[in-house]
Structures are given as C-alpha cells and as structure tokens.
Write a structure and sequence with these properties.
Elements lengths: L2 E8 L23 H14 L2 E8 L6 H13 L3 E4 L2
Helix pairs in contact: 1-2
Length: about 80
C-alpha cells in the first residue's frame, strides 16, 4: 500500500480563522527547513512506500523559496506533489 506524507510547512498564515484546525495566524512562527524536508524524504526513500507528498500550513506560499525547494526535492525522487493552501 502506497502512503502519503503531509508536511505542515509552517503555522504562519495571513488569516486567523476560527475554524482552522492547526491554529494558524499571522503571528505564528516556525517553518520546516530544506534540510529538515530532505531528512524526512530520505527516510521515505528508505521505506519505499511513499508516492505522494503534500505541503500544507498555515500558508505554505508565505515561504515560497522553501516551498519551491521542497517541491524540487520531492519531484527529483519521483514523488507526486500537492499543495494545500
């Protein structure tokens, strides 16, 4: 059975919606780094059962360079990519 990885790229968001299940807001801090993403994808390679990764948030496009690097890393491994914004 193939599996998916869902990266919560950041908690930061342009809004602070009451219904947000990750409690994102403009004042939230922290983001995955390209190195952290690489570590997780390396582990996924070892498992051999991951075929798709999703990058979510918060608002993942607030960290566009990190998001683009993450997408590149995933595509280089032959993984399908989705973005939830």
């Amino acid at each position: 059975m193939m599996m998916q990885i869902h990266f919560l790229l950041t908690y930061q968001c342009t809004l602070a919606c009451e219904h947000c299940f990750v409690c994102s807001s403009p004042s939230a801090e922290g983001t995955f780094t390209p190195g952290g993403i690489r570590e997780v994808l390396d582990q996924a390679d070892q498992l051999g059962t991951v075929d798709t990764v999703y990058f979510e948030g918060g608002e993942p496009f607030l960290f566009y360079p990190v998001l683009m690097d993450a997408i590149r890393q995933a595509k280089e491994r032959g993984l399908s990519v989705g973005i939830v914004t």
